[in-house]
Specification:
The protein is an alpha/beta fold. Helix content is about 65%, strand content about 5%. Among the domains are: about 55 residues; about 150 residues, Rossmann fold, CATH 3.40.50.1110. Strands 2-1-3-4-5 form a five-stranded parallel β-sheet, sandwiched between helices. The radius of gyration is 67 Å and the shape is rod-shaped.
């Protein structure tokens, strides 16, 4: 029997039992048998209702199971959506971090190597910022013998007080006039004509007034070499004269050793003692450099 037909038969049976109970109740249930029948009918009807109601319960239970499954499905979908959202967030943060790292790499560029243009530019700046020290004095007074006369003739822009064949006595005669000079480079160059008078020269130089030395740049130049082919024997005496003069300089007076430079680099003379123009200019240039006037040309 199908479930629908079975349910219908039960309903019919229940109706019949209820009808019979009503009739018995109306009849008054006079005998014990009738009363027992009435109780049986009522009990059967009640049992039938409970059975019917219990048979309907599975459908309710089934619906609850479906609801639970639906809730679980929705929960799993929600968790899946949450996981996807977290994954997308992590991917977004990873991309953002990657972009920031790439920007940082772009900003942090390696220090470029200096090019030829950069090096040239730095050299130009260095040249422009170089401070050139000016000499204390720019005027020159040379005092001496015939070699000083030749120097004055070959070099422009200087003054001299000199005489051909001059010796220590000439120096003494002009000393009062020379010591009146102020704010100049005063360069003495005596001795080639009287190498034996070294002690007298030392005495004269030590008598120079302190005020003269203080207000000028006073220099004693070495006796310069002669040509060995004609006056070779003089050079030994010249070296002795220069060595003793250098050891006995007056306070505040400087010594310029042009003799050693000429012997080392070479020189040329007209007669073994007096120089040609090129050598005189070299001597003047050595004097300019010594006075801090290296840009000056002889």
């Amino acid at each position: 029997m199908r479930p629908i037909e079975k349910k219908s038969n039960k309903n019919v049976f229940l109706i019949l039992l209820l009808t019979l109970a009503v009739l018995l109740n109306a009849a008054g249930c006079k005998s014990n048998k009738d009363e027992g029948l009435y109780q049986f009918v009522v009990t059967s009807a009640t049992t039938s209702e409970e059975t019917t109601s219990s048979e309907t319960m599975p459908s309710i239970s089934f619906e609850t199971a479906e609801t639970t499954e639906t809730a679980e499905t929705e929960s799993s979908q929600t968790e899946s959506t949450t996981e996807e959202t977290e994954t997308e967030t992590e991917e977004t943060e990873s991309k953002t971090t990657s972009k920031a790292t790439q920007k940082a790499k772009k900003v942090t560029k390696p220090t470029p190597k200096p090019t030829k243009k950069t090096i040239k530019a730095s050299k130009k700046v260095t040249k422009k910022t170089t401070v050139v020290t000016k000499p204390k004095y720019t005027e020159y007074l040379f005092v001496g013998d015939s070699r000083t006369v030749g120097l004055d003739a070959c070099v422009s822009g200087i003054s001299s007080k000199a005489k051909v064949g001059a010796k220590v006595d000439y120096l003494q005669s002009i000393l009062s006039d020379v010591t009146k000079t102020r704010k100049k480079n005063v360069i003495f160059n005596f001795g080639v004509n009287d190498l034996g008078n070294i002690n007298k020269y030392i005495t004269v130089y030590k008598s120079l007034p302190k005020d003269f030395i203080k207000n000028n740049n006073v220099i004693i130049m070495s006796v310069n070499p002669t040509d060995g082919s004609k006056y070779g024997s003089w050079n030994t005496d010249i070296d002795k004269f220069n060595a003793k003069m250098k050891k006995n300089l007056p306070s505040g007076v400087k010594y310029l050793d042009t003799n050693s430079t000429l012997k080392k680099e070479g020189f040329s003379t007209r007669d073994g003692v007096h120089y040609k123009e090129v050598t005189y200019k070299r001597i003047a240039k050595l004097a300019f450099n010594f006075c801090g006037d290296s840009s000056r040309k002889p």
